[in-house]
Amino acid sequence: MAITYKLACPLAQQNGFGARMATCAVFFAVGTGLILHVRKALLRELRQIREVAGAAQSVLLRPLPPRIDGLNVAAAQLSADRGASVGGDLYEVIATEHGVRVVMGDVRGHGIGAIGTVAAVLGSFREAVHDEPELGSVLRRLERALARHLRERARAEHPSSGLDPDSPVAEEFVTLLLLEIRRDGEVYALNCGHPWPYLLRSHVEPAGVRGHVVRLAFGEPLPPLGPFPLPAELPVVRCGQLLPGEGLFLHTDGVEDARDAQGRFFPLPAALTDAVHVQPVSPQSVLNSVFSQVLSHTGGMPADDIALLVLRNDRRRVSAQQPHPVAHQVT
């Protein structure tokens, strides 16, 4: 349009001030229209990308039902990449004939590059928890699925060699926490380099004291999946009994590693204590409280992906209760 105006319009051939102003106005209008058109196209593309990311999230980190086999459940994930709906954190809760089985994991890195690894691990977990009676066998299935995924990815990234690399994507690893919560409330765990969960109690002695948070810690965890093979023996840890009304708080290290403008780490135990002081305590209220405090602490821009999962035992109290194991209080 601008070129046609310049070549065909008699006014554009004149050198007077008015003619020059008219020419400038035409070029300005055309330029503005072009910019608006490009902006509209970019916004449409961004909207489509977010729709695709939302669809991917619904498949990978599908929304959990509020109740699973007598457990009240709430979970959420926040990607560190702006505009991304999924990242490198993963979680799932599935009721099986062996008990409710839970996975919380963290893939090295975040954003789009970690989605393939998340899909491989979650897909294997969703099948293995129903097939394998032992928690250790579930973990070995996840290890094989991850190794297969990394080999295929390395082969795709280096197709010219035609051979399987000796150490495919050696820097890739996944930290995992596997839990099994049985009908009587007994909790068993396998930990591969992941943060241990927190036990949440709404009421503790003495009377009138509300809210108590204890970090469960049971020795050194196994190494993360990926860099090293699992040992021949996988010692499943007995974590004690989750009594009715008590909860478990699972998280990825992006929560505790979150820093404010002064470089101070996020005080997760204090945030959990504040959350359980508010009665009645529910997984969703704990989730909302911790998330809002993390975003406030980081100024709304966390440096790493964050995933939170809260479970509360809403089953009836069992007749025979065993005491809790000794846990380490975090200060």
Characteristics:
331 residues; alpha+beta; Phosphatase 2c, domain 1; 2 domains; five-stranded antiparallel sheet; disordered C terminus
How would you summarize what this structure contains?
The protein is an alpha+beta fold.
Structural class: alpha+beta
Mean pLDDT metric: 81
Count of alpha and pi helical runs: 7
Order of H and E elements = HHEEEEHHEEEEEEHHHE
Shape: elongated
Report what the structure shows.
The chain is of the alpha+beta class and 331 residues long. The chain has 2 domains: 1-6 and 14-60, no CATH class; 62-115 and 172-313, 4-Layer Sandwich (Phosphatase 2c, domain 1). It is 37% helix and 22% strand. It has helices at residues 2-8, 17-60, 115-131, 135-157, 253-256, 268-277, 283-298, and strands spanning 67-68, 71-78, 89-96, 99-107, 174-181, 186-192, 198-204, 209-215, 237-241, 247-251, 306-313. The strands form 2 sheets. The protein has a 6-stranded antiparallel sheet with strand order 1-2-11-10-7-8. β1 (67-68) and β2 (71-78) form a beta hairpin. α3 runs antiparallel to α4 and α6 packs across α7 (283-298). The radius of gyration is 27 Å and the shape is elongated. The model is unreliable at 319-331 (pLDDT under 50).
